[in-house]
Design goal:
The complex is a heterodimer of chains A (about 110) and B (about 110).
Chain A lengths: L4 E3 L2 E4 L5 E6 L6 E7 L6 E7 L2 E4 L8 E4 L6 E5 L8 E8 L8 E2 L3 E5 L1
Parallel strand pairs in A: 2-11
Antiparallel strand pairs in A: 1-3, 3-8, 4-5, 4-9, 5-6, 7-8, 9-10, 9-11
Chain B lengths: L2 E5 L2 E5 L4 E8 L6 E6 L5 E7 L5 E3 L5 E5 L4 E6 L8 E8 L5 E3 L3 E6 L1
Parallel strand pairs in B: 2-11
Antiparallel strand pairs in B: 1-3, 3-8, 4-5, 4-9, 6-7, 7-8, 9-10, 9-11
Classes of the chains: A mainly beta (about 110), B mainly beta (about 110).
């Protein structure tokens, strides 16, 4: 399967703990996006990378959120000191750097903060 | 800035009936528009996209959408609903960084 892969699929954590999610994009895709989706809402853009460069991070929800994409391959999204309001689905998408912005999504990581 | 409004958070149709899901957009530049489908606890799957050219766009699973610039709309239709079409549908517009701005979604229920 050459689609976008996200791990873990589900994560339950206690409030105050740190969590890290991983995304493996489609291999030839140089753009990688992170989105957050809360119940009953559409995905909300967080940040994106072109190769290893993070070109937009102003939409990250707070300074507790950070993302990396070392070597321009897989990416990680970390949330420090989790809060109950962080409970959501975190989606990763990748695309080739073409005009349209068409993106292919992974199956997401469902985070539950208890 | 770009935005998307999906009219109707829930739509119910009978199996075999016409499906119509509404989407209106706002964009300061010529828009690139998308429809995605999401099944429970899954990611998003692209149904169809409008970039340039033909305003009637055909997608997978028998869906199509028509771009109407004068109405700033991109409604999704399917002539005959199937039980397997039950899912949540999202309309999206491309932003300046080629990220997608999504509407809040429409949950489609197909009744037997």
């Amino acid at each position: 399967d050459t689609g976008v892969s996200q791990n873990p699929r589900h994560k339950i954590t206690k409030r105050g703990q740190n969590v890290t999610f991983r995304c493996d994009p489609i291999s030839e895709h140089n753009r990688l996006y992170w989105y957050r989706q809360t119940l009953g809402q559409g995905p909300e853009f967080l940040t994106y990378f072109q190769n290893e460069a993070q070109l937009e991070k102003s939409r990250l929800l707070s300074d507790r959120f950070s993302a990396e994409r070392p070597k321009g391959s897989f990416s990680t999204l970390e949330i420090q000191r989790t809060e109950q309001g962080d409970s959501a689905m975190y989606l990763c998408a990748s695309s080739i750097d073409v005009e349209t912005g068409e993106a292919f999504f992974g199956q997401g990581t469902r985070l539950t903060v208890v | 800035a770009q935005s998307v409004t999906q009219l109707g958070s829930h739509v119910s149709v009978s199996e075999g009936a016409l499906v119509l899901l509404r989407c209106n957009y706002s964009s300061s530049v010529p828009p690139y528009l998308f429809w995605y489908v999401q099944y429970p606890n899954q990611g998003l799957q692209l149904l169809l996209k409008y970039t340039t050219g033909a305003t009637l766009v055909k997608g997978i699973n028998g869906f199509e959408a028509e771009f109407k610039k004068s109405e700033t709309s991109f409604h999704l239709t399917k002539p005959s609903a199937h039980m397997s079409d039950a899912a949540e549908y999202f309309c999206a517009v491309r932003g300046s960084a080629r990220q997608l701005t999504f509407g809040s979604g429409t949950q489609l229920t197909v009744l037997p």
